[in-house]
């Protein structure tokens, strides 16, 4: 199906602990990207919205069928899977904002990914990790899984390093870690560059969808 509306990019908040720092960081990523003309001008090529995995509160994956075998979302057994499918289908690209937990990414994110397949496939993805050393190990593992879901994952993965041990302690308590007051000012350019690359991949993906839709229409007319 051709997208007639402006494509939507969803920023996914991938930590669900209480308390947590992830919403602060997702908001920093969003406000940084909102300085890109392609996302703010009247001729914006995409819009940004947020998905909070805590709000979704999905149970542990409990579908009887492998999601890659499901082409029609009405075939999902669970109502929460059908609702999650509708949500993910609304967006044409994703930005995953995630912490590193024990050298990996949060289990709640793997659970949310495993529920679906075709809803993710073919869509561009940007990964922004954070941690004491930037969370690069979590980002690398997530990239591999997203590629398994056939997503178009950016090689450019901004990694945000907490400015010292006190910041890790404050972040863990969900306290204000001073973003916008000096913390990560220098990281904004890297996030913007990755955002531009994501918009490039999104334009390519949308063009492919449009060509596919036109050739289907052409085939029907023959
Ligand atoms: C279970 C757990 C494991 C963690 N493992 C790591 C780690 O491997 N590397 C790291 O830099 N920080 C680690 N941390 C510290 C997190 O970077 C910090 O707690 C951060 O606030 C977590 O993000 P959140 O508040 O959004 O959940 C860990 C924190 C938790 C709760």
From TrEMBL:
<protein>
    <submittedName>
        <fullName>NAD(P)H-dependent FMN reductase C4B3.06c</fullName>
    </submittedName>
</protein>
<dbReference type="GO" id="GO:0010181">
    <property type="term" value="F:FMN binding"/>
</dbReference>
<dbReference type="GO" id="GO:0016491">
    <property type="term" value="F:oxidoreductase activity"/>
</dbReference>
<dbReference type="Pfam" id="PF03358">
    <property type="entry name" value="FMN_red"/>
</dbReference>
<dbReference type="InterPro" id="IPR029039">
    <property type="entry name" value="Flavoprotein-like_sf"/>
</dbReference>
<dbReference type="InterPro" id="IPR005025">
    <property type="entry name" value="FMN_Rdtase-like_dom"/>
</dbReference>
<dbReference type="InterPro" id="IPR050712">
    <property type="entry name" value="NAD(P)H-dep_reductase"/>
</dbReference>
<dbReference type="GO" id="GO:0005829">
    <property type="term" value="C:cytosol"/>
</dbReference>
<feature type="domain" description="NADPH-dependent FMN reductase-like">
    <location>
        <begin position="8"/>
        <end position="156"/>
    </location>
</feature>
């Amino acid at each position: 199906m051709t997208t007639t509306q402006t494509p939507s990019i969803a920023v996914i908040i991938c930590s669900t602990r209480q308390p947590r720092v992830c919403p602060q960081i997702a908001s920093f990523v969003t406000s940084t990207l909102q300085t890109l003309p392609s996302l703010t001008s009247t001729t914006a090529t995409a819009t940004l919205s947020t998905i909070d995995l805590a709000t979704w509160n999905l149970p542990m994956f409990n579908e009887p069928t492998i999601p890659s075998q499901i082409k029609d979302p009405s075939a999902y057994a669970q109502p929460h899977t059908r609702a999650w499918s509708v949500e993910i289908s609304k967006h044409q690209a994703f930005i995953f904002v995630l912490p590193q937990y024990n050298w990996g990414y949060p289990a709640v994110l793997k659970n949310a990914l495993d529920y679906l397949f075709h809803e993710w496939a073919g869509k561009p993805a940007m990964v922004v990790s954070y941690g004491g050393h930037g969370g690069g190990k979590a980002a690398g593992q997530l990239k591999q899984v997203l590629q398994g879901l056939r997503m178009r994952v950016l090689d450019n993965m901004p990694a945000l390093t907490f400015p010292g041990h006190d910041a890790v302690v404050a972040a863990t308590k969900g306290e204000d870690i001073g973003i916008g007051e000096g913390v990560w000012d220098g990281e904004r350019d890297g996030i913007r560059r990755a955002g531009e690359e994501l918009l490039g991949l999104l334009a390519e993906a949308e063009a492919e969808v449009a060509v596919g839709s036109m050739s289907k229409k052409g085939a029907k007319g023959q």
